[in-house]
Amino acid sequence: MKKSELLKLVADWMDETIAGTDLELVDLEYVKEGGNYFLRVYIDKPGGVDVEDCRKVTLRLSDLLDEADPINHPYTLEVSSPGLERPLKKPEDFERFNGRLVNIRTYQAIDGRKEFEGKLTAFKSGIVTVDVQGKLVEIPHDQIAKARLAVEF
User: Fold this and answer.
1) Predicted model pTM
2) What is the domain extent for residue 17?
3) For the domain that residue 110 is a member of, what is the CATH number?
4) Which of 5, 40, 49, 62 would bridge 29 by S-S if both were Cys, CB 3.0 to 4.6 A apart?
5) Residue 152: what pLDDT?
């Protein structure tokens, strides 16, 4: 099974698994690291996830993966919180975390640069606005290669 097909399958299972709960699927990864494969599922909820949330999702996904057997080699299933530097992917993520410090990397340069750190000030009509040291930078959502919350100390 292709990687994209696997991720779509797991995303669909996650939609079913978390339906009716306050959990959300933040991100999925299927990667090979050091010769080992990992299927990583990142979940969150208001107030953060705990070990029990991760355990329940792990058990359900493990059963579905064992039944369907879409991966024909050994791998490790990991279900966890997205952490302090949570990725921002969906438009709802940018709306939810308005006012927070973010790191954004773009596919193409905007104002001569591809990396931005600043306060997320708006998301409207597909445009993410970030205050970078007092200058408002508008970044088209479809030009964002990677966006994460930044840790504020």
Assistant:
1) 0.84
2) 3-80
3) 2.30.30.180
4) 40
5) 80
Q: From the CB of residue 17, how many other CB atoms can be counted at a distance below 10 Å?
A: 20
Q: How far apart are CA 16 and CA 1, in angstroms?
A: 21
Distance of CA 34 to the CA centre of its chain: 23
> For position 35, which CATH number holds?
3.30.300.70
Continuous segment of H or E residues that includes residue 77: strand 76-80
What percentage of the chain reaches a pLDDT higher than 70?
100
What is the C-alpha to C-alpha distance for residues 23 and 93, in angstroms, rounded to an integer? Answer: 14
Pairing of strands 24-33, 144-149: unpaired
Phi, psi of 42 (to 5 degrees): -110, 125
Residue 86 lies in a domain: no
- Apex CA 115: angle with CA 39 and CA 149, to 5°? 55
In a domain, 30, yes or no: yes
